[in-house]
Amino acid sequence: LTTECNMNFLAPAEGDRIIARGKVVKTGRTLTFCQCELFAKRDDQEQLIALFTATLIAVDGRDGISD
């Protein structure tokens, strides 16, 4: 479940392909903070085009929550 997400567009997505690289920055018992960078690739050059961050909340094992 997402508690917050933010996307910043930095440049036009011009290139032959889009590459996304994501990582978990910090994980905790309840909240997890993630980050993703998106790049446009053209002729072996990558340009940063967007940044995405999200804070996720763990709901597994919580009272009153089920599938």
Notes on the protein architecture:
This protein has 67 residues and is mostly beta strands. The chain has strands at 2-9, 17-27, 31-42, 45-57. A hairpin with a 3-residue loop joins strand 2 (17-27) and strand 3 (31-42).
List unreliable stretches of 5+ residues: none
- Tell me the radius of gyration: 16 Å
> What share of the residues lie within helices?
under 10%
H/E topology pattern:
EEEE
Total helical elements: 0
In terms of structural class, how would the helical and strand content be classed? mainly beta
> Strand tally, please?
4
What secondary-structure arrangement, pairings included, does this model have?
Elements: E1 2-9, E2 17-27, E3 31-42, E4 45-57
Antiparallel strand pairs: 1-4, 2-3, 3-4
Question: Which descriptors would you attach to this protein?
Answer:
67 residues, mainly beta, four-stranded antiparallel sheet
Summarize this, please?
The protein has strands at about 1-10, 15-25, 30-40, 45-55. A 4-stranded antiparallel sheet has the order 1-4-3-2, with no helix packed on it. About 0% of the residues lie in helices and about 65% in strands.
